[in-house]
Amino acid sequence: MSLVEQKLSRIDLNLLIALSVLLKEQNVSRAAELLFLSQSAMSRTLQRLREVFDDQLFIRASKGITPTVKALEIAKVLPEIIDSLNELVTNKDFIPEQCEQTFTMSLPTLFTQSVILPLIKDLRVKAPKVKLNDHAAKVNPFPLLESGALDFAINLTSINDAHFTSTPFAQLKLVIYGRKGHPLLEQKKVELANCLKYDFAALILENDDNIQFRNPVDNIVSTEGVTRNIVLRTSQIFVLIEYLKSSNALLMGPNSLMKSDELKGILEPVFEFDHTPENLIDLYLIEHKRVAASPAHQWFKQRLMATMTL
């Protein structure tokens, strides 16, 4: 607790309301009536106010009470304070056009173009004052969600924890991509074995906490009883794309990449895994319970979920 918080902890908010009424009425009896207090209770309230502000605040006059210089100074700022408190405790209708919130989220880099680009375009129309911060996905986003550093995380795994909500976000089909003009594209039929004769490049999923983690892509490949020769692992999407463009290396990624206008003409699908349940990659939208009652965050969540249909 800070020194300011310690000092303010002495103040009952009801005292500020009583002070506001006293300043307006400048009469203890009328103030007591308006606050539904007895005369003696109002007198005790005034005494507590004098102790808090270390000032008489009001001097008895022939007709009621007269505010001191200190009380008049308080009167200049008190209405704004009360209005601010009222705003805090009043549930307002959420109006997207007026929202000035900054939302922060993380998601797998290969999924960014199919989510972030349609999302920001949608937000610019429906909530032009909203700002969006996008971070690379982490194996363990949960401490960041809990601290408020992240509002949402699109994650490869769900979580069974009462402090978090996991919402199924998408099921991805696994595709192998090569550069435009790749030798495999000249073949009439491409098998997985053909692809595995080539090198692969892959994106790194940040794992700051060194948590034991196995990428779902590796799980799918291992069920086929094969392995990839990954010669480049990077966290930079542009490095990855440039390497793929200048080599015959391949990339395993989600089918959503095929929707990307930016990658058309650069990468082309050369092989698609069978669309069986064991070959699908589940994505989950994770949020902390702290945002569950926030109209702004829940509206943003709806827009984020809608990107899957945009």
What secondary-structure arrangement, pairings included, does this model have?
Blueprint: H1 3-8, H2 13-25, H3 28-34, H4 39-53, E1 58-61, E2 64-67, H5 69-89, E3 102-107, H6 112-126, E4 131-136, H7 142-147, E5 152-155, E6 164-179, H8 192-195, E7 200-203, H9 216-223, E8 230-234, H10 237-245, E9 250-254, E10 267-272, E11 280-288, H11 295-306
Parallel strand pairs: 3-4, 3-5, 7-8, 7-9
Antiparallel strand pairs: 1-2, 5-11, 6-9, 6-10, 6-11
Helix pairs in contact: 2-3, 2-4, 2-5, 3-4
Q: What key phrases describe this protein's structure?
A:
310 residues; Arc Repressor Mutant, subunit A; D-Maltodextrin-Binding Protein, domain 2; 2 domains; 11 helices
Round the mean pLDDT to the nearest integer and report it: 86
Overall outline: rod-shaped
Strand proportion: 15-25%
Tell me the CATH architecture of the largest domain. 3-Layer(aba) Sandwich
| CATH fold type of the largest domain | D-Maltodextrin-Binding Protein, domain 2
Helix content: 25-40%
Question: How many domain units?
Answer: 2
Oligomer: single chain
Largest sheet: 9 strands, mixed
CATH class of the largest domain: Alpha Beta
| Sheet/helix structural class | alpha/beta
Uncertain segments of ≥5 residues (pLDDT<50)? 209-213
Distance between the termini: 46 Å
Q: Using only CA atoms, what is the Rg?
A: 30 Å
Q: Please tally the helical runs, counting DSSP H or I stretches of 4 or more residues.
A: 11
The strand count comes to 11
Output the helix-strand order.
HHHHEEHEHEHEEHEHEHEEEH
